[in-house]
Specification:
- By secondary structure, this protein is of the alpha+beta class.
- The protein has three helices and 17 strands.
- It has a six-stranded antiparallel beta sheet, with helices on both faces. The chain has a six-stranded antiparallel barrel with strand order 12-13-14-17-16-15.
- The longest helix has 25 residues.
- The chain is elongated.
- The relative contact order is 0.14.
Length: 252
C-alpha cells in the first residue's frame, strides 16, 4: 500500500497535525460520532459522501464506506489523490491519500487506505476567519427598505468563518445597528453554490483608505444556521485553505 502524501512541509500550516496519536484520535472521533465526511477526487470535481467505519492502529489502515456504484468506486481507486473533509465538534478536519483500494468490512464492500501521516485541523470555527479572494470578489445580497420599497443591496465579502462574515458597505446604506437581523441574505460561494442565510449585525467600523475615501466594514454573525448550510460554509473555508497551502508549496 502506498504511503499517503504529506499535506505540505513541516509547519506549512499552523493547523497541521503531525502527531500519530492525535491523528488516530481525531479519525476515531469522526468514526465514533458517526460523522458524514466528503470524499473528493480530481481536485474536488467529484464529491462523494462517506463515513469512517474503522481505524486500525495495528494494521495502519482506515476503512471508509464505499461510494454508490461500482464505476464511482473504481474512479476513486484510480484517482491520483483522494481528499477527505469533515467536521468534528464544529472543527474542520481535512486529510488526503494516494493509496485507496477496495476492501471488505463486516461482510460488506468498503474502501481502505493508510492512516495519514498528517492532517489539517482548523481552529475553532468561532475564531478562525479566512480572507476571501480580492481578485474575484464575492457579493452578499441583503434585502433592505429604501424609500418605502424593498431593494437588493449587494455588498462585497471580506472574510468568512463558520460563525459569520464581514462585508464592505462603501455607500453606507445598510442599517448596521448591533443586533439587527437580516433574513434571506444570499451568499454565492464559488464551487459551492448559492446559500440562503440570516445575518445578525455584530459591529461596524468606518475605515479611512489611503486615497482619503472612507469605507464601512460590517461584521455579521450567522443566525440559526442549519447543519447543511454550516457544512457548505465549512467546505468553502477548507477550499480556501487548500488553495492557500498550494500557493505556499508553489513558492517553495
Amino acid at each position: 500500500m502506498q504511503s499517503p502524501p504529506s499535506l505540505g512541509t513541516e509547519n506549512q500550516s499552523p493547523f497541521q497535525v503531525d502527531s500519530r496519536r492525535e491523528i488516530i484520535s481525531l479519525l476515531r472521533g469522526l468514526k465514533d460520532s458517526n460523522q458524514l465526511i466528503s470524499m473528493l477526487i480530481h481536485d474536488g470535481a467529484e464529491v462523494f459522501i462517506t463515513s469512517i467505519l474503522d481505524v486500525d492502529d495495528n494494521n495502519n489502515t482506515v476503512t471508509v464506506d464505499c461510494a454508490p456504484g461500482q464505476l464511482a468506486n473504481q474512479r476513486i481507486i484510480e484517482a491520483h489523490r483522494v481528499s477527505f473533509e469533515g467536521l468534528l465538534d464544529k472543527i474542520g478536519i481535512q486529510f488526503s491519500t494516494t493509496g485507496v483500494h477496495s476492501a471488505e468490512f463486516e461482510n460488506r464492500p468498503a474502501l481502505q487506505f493508510s492512516i495519514p501521516s498528517n492532517l489539517i485541523r482548523l481552529q475553532r470555527r468561532e475564531y478562525y476567519r479566512i480572507n476571501t479572494p480580492v481578485s474575484t470578489p464575492i457579493k452578499v445580497s441583503f434585502s433592505v427598505e429604501v424609500n418605502d420599497s424593498v431593494e437588493v443591496l449587494k455588498l462585497s465579502l471580506v472574510d468568512i468563518s463558520c460563525g459569520g462574515i464581514a462585508v464592505l458597505d462603501e455607500k453606507k446604506i445598510l442599517d448596521c445597528t448591533p443586533g439587527k437581523i437580516y433574513e434571506h441574505c444570499k451568499l454565492d460561494l464559488p464551487t459551492i453554490g448559492l446559500i440562503d442565510v440570516a445575518l445578525q449585525i455584530r459591529n461596524s467600523q468606518d475605515l479611512v483608505l489611503l486615497n482619503g475615501k472612507t469605507n464601512r466594514r460590517i461584521g455579521c454573525q450567522f443566525f440559526n444556521l442549519s447543519n447543511s448550510v454550516l457544512t457548505s460554509v465549512q467546505r468553502y473555508i477548507m477550499k480556501l485553505e487548500r488553495e492557500r497551502n498550494s500557493k505556499m508549496t508553489g513558492i517553495r
